[in-house]
User: Fold this.
Amino acid sequence: MDKASVINTCRGTSGGCRFALHVDEDFAERLEKVIEESGWPEFLHQKFGEKVNRHKLVNVSAASCPNGCSRPHIADIGLIRACVPVIDHEGCIGCEECIRNCPDEAMEMVDGKVVITREKCLVCGYCTNVCPTEVISCSRSGWRFLVGGRLGRHPRLGMELPGVYSDDEVLELISRCMKLWMDNYVDGKRFGWVMDRVGHDKILLES
Ligand code: SF4
Ligand code: SF4
Ligand code: SF4
Assistant:
């Protein structure tokens, strides 16, 4: 049977970019495997026969930072690597390297202390690389999870689920997504269209 998914990853997922957060080597393979095991390939095969048009496949895109070179915002399922930064103020020498380098102007010095504005922070983790005393670390590492992005006649960006998810949690969410898509499938419509009607909260609540 032909492939049932298109998995795109940015070059940073294999470590080739200065902005990249670490991604396990076998992560893309695990993504493909969870889709294979969801019953999606057999579902497509039964509906459309042996030769399934590429547009029918589920596309998953993973990027190692919010720059999103693999275009996770317009994939059926988009993943953006994330590190939620936390500062150990005891060891901070006040050099302001983090403030100067934050791509989103999410850091500032307030009364001699570096403060992160959470509403602006895209959890890219870049500040953890530039701190000379290594006092910025990730309080949580994982993935942001976007659902239902698409191009075409009615393009739109994927909707982001709240939170940051571990590799295993991402695989579990993808398995739920595939089940929801198959259960509510409408020919010619992408996953995002289906989820707009089913409700994105179902991805988190269904077991
Ligand atoms: S998405 Fe980020 S980590 Fe990946 S290649 Fe682009 S800039 Fe580098
Ligand atoms: S994680 Fe990224 S956006 Fe957030 S404070 Fe650090 S450098 Fe800025
Ligand atoms: S880069 Fe590190 S040491 Fe310098 S101000 Fe930021 S947290 Fe403090």
Q: What stands out?
A: Residues 167-183 form the longest helix (17 residues). The CA atoms of residues 94 and 200 lie 43 Å apart. The helical segments are 27-37, 40-48, 97-101, 126-130, 167-183, 191-198, 201-205. Strands lie at 5-9, 58-63, 77-87, 107-110, 113-116, 136-147, 159-160.
